[in-house]
Known about the structure:
The protein is α/β, with parallel strands linked by helices. The chain has 4 domains: 3-151, DNA polymerase beta, N-terminal domain-like (DNA polymerase, domain 1); 156-259, 2-Layer Sandwich (Beta Polymerase, domain 2), CATH 3.30.460.10; 267-346, Beta Polymerase, domain 3 (2-Layer Sandwich), CATH 3.30.210; 356-593, TIM Barrel, CATH 3.20.20.140. Helices cover 42% and strands 14% of the residues. The protein has helices at 3-20, 25-40, 50-55, 61-73, 77-85, 90-94, 101-111, 116-122, 136-154, 158-174, 185-189, 206-214, 265-273, 276-288, 322-328, 376-385, 408-425, 449-454, 470-482, 507-516, 534-542, 562-571, 585-593, and strands at 156-157, 178-184, 193-194, 196-203, 219-225, 229-236, 251-259, 291-294, 297-300, 361-362, 390-396, 430-438, 457-461, 488-489, 520-524, 547-550. Strand 11, helix 17 (408-425) and strand 12 (430-438) form a beta-alpha-beta unit. The longest helix is centred in the N-terminal third of the chain and has 19 residues, at 136-154. The radius of gyration is 27 Å and the shape is globular.
Amino acid sequence: MSFNTTLAEHLNEMSTLLELTGANRFKIAAFAKAARVAENQTADLSTLDTKDLLAIDGIGKGVAAFIEELAETGEVTDLVSLREEVPAGLAEVLDIQGLGPKTVRQLWQDLGVTDRQSLAKVIDGDEILSLPRMGQKTIDNIKRSLTFASKSNQRLPLGVAARIADKLLERMRETPGVKQAELAGSFRRGRDTIGDIDVLVVTDKEELARAAFCEADDVLDVIARGETKCSIRIEVPTKKGRWKTDPGKKATIGADLRIVPAESFGAALMYFTGSKEHNIRLRERALKQGLTLNEYGLFPDEKGEKGSPQSRGVKPVASKTEKQVYAKLGMPVIPPEIREDLGEIDLEETPKLVELKDIKSELHAHTTASDGHMPLHELVQCAIDRGFHTIAVTDHSRSSVQANGLSEDRLREQREEIEEAKAHFGSKVTILAGSEVDILADGSLDYDDDMLAELDIVVASPHAALTQDPKTATKRLLRAIEHPLVHIIGHPTGRLINRRPGLEPAMDELIAAAVEHDTALEINSHWMRLDLRDTHVRAAVSAGCKIAIDCDDHMPEDFDNLRFGVSTARRGMLTPELCVNAWSKTKLHKWLKSKR
Ligand code: DGT
Ligand code: CA
Ligand code: CA
Ligand code: ZN
């Protein structure tokens, strides 16, 4: 993380904490403003002296001292003491709609509220009514917000859960005695949001595995520490990215560890991967075959016998690997992503779903010309490093003012820069001159057709007016899909997971039009978007619609989001044939040219 980013987080946190301790409102505002200033500075603020800092608009004496202390020591004493004073959970309470800092402060000081849970406890009591400005109506509003907030915050976006899951798996695999470790549950199935993380291990040193799981630094709470099952709550590190995480708001996620015997690892992995609905179908199928299936294995069904087969010492017909269990059920191995009881039980063979390694091109990426953080050369190098044969440069169009969208003049200038980059990189990669052109509210595009026709690739995306009614949204998107110069519709609904629902167009109409006009629909791989979502992909694939899986890169790390796009694609049963990014260079370029 850059110093300026760290600084902005500290400044934001300072501002929030000052608010909660009832500080002077000018001081609160000064820190909040400084946070925005810090984010937008190109110079590294840790390298500036006091004079230069004070010369920046929005940085006064107090903030300058704050910056210098942070640069020198890595912390700020004022902030540290405020953190000790204010319970960490209060920031979350402050986030609840209808609760301002004054009220939150009172709830804390007078009623001992320190987080959402303790607020939920006092909300039904009489004491809360004694607070100034607190009537039944306000209380009802808070209650409603509290339930909504707990609902939408329960599940973490896949990409956020991945930060914990990847680490947890690595930690278990490195623990002495551990023979096998796998992630299961919704994470393995690649769902867009995760309730909790499930980990399975086989070990001959059980106590070490329990300790590795329950005693790591990021464990906030151990809910259970049993022989074969442990449950913990983990703190999720916040990361600054394109979508800011709220200052001071600590996300947490639960994780379950199961220690299972080596001989039943496959059966356990199947059971704990789920989904529950898929498991139920499998058990029905087993019963029809005179077998019984549980997390220990597939057993002969001895009707009338009491207790589980494993407890009676019955030998399973299969249990060690998933492959063996599925085989004995007379089924191909079902990829985890489609274990959702949506027809996969009847598959005759394992479908050849698209894989991470199939992806050979990136067709939606930004540079510093608009709101990206990578200069053109860096972007191209990232694509080369991933082994891609093609990289498309698709900066924002003029209407995306907040994203520094390009005027037609600037877009033409960029073409010159792209020509220079082509000469520089030679045959290492094909660089496409493109645009992510805004689909305006009425479905028209943000550049003239003449301009669009000059580009190698056009990704058209909705960015504004995302609360349109479904009918208007359908018409709007249909117009873009039908446009002869458009190749791909970027993040078609504009949803942001847990944040905004986005457009709700008639997806079947869009898909039919996309097939007819040979336009691809995008799966935007950013974990905040995953748009198209899995169900849309599924419908699109069954209609034969082309799909693009792109990362919409703004910074080098964004390329790593591809795995989330791919799991969403797999959940939609996408095969490499329909995925334009999985095509060879020749095939891809032929399609792109067919629209010119
Ligand atoms: P999540 O955590 O809400 O994102 O979703 P899952 O699918 O990871 O659910 P979780 O963590 O409650 O359980 C993991 C898997 O364990 C689940 O997918 C299927 C299996 N499982 C758990 N409880 C049951 C149950 O009561 N019946 C059956 N058949 N399977 C269960
Ligand atoms: Ca789970
Ligand atoms: Ca679980
Ligand atoms: Zn974009």
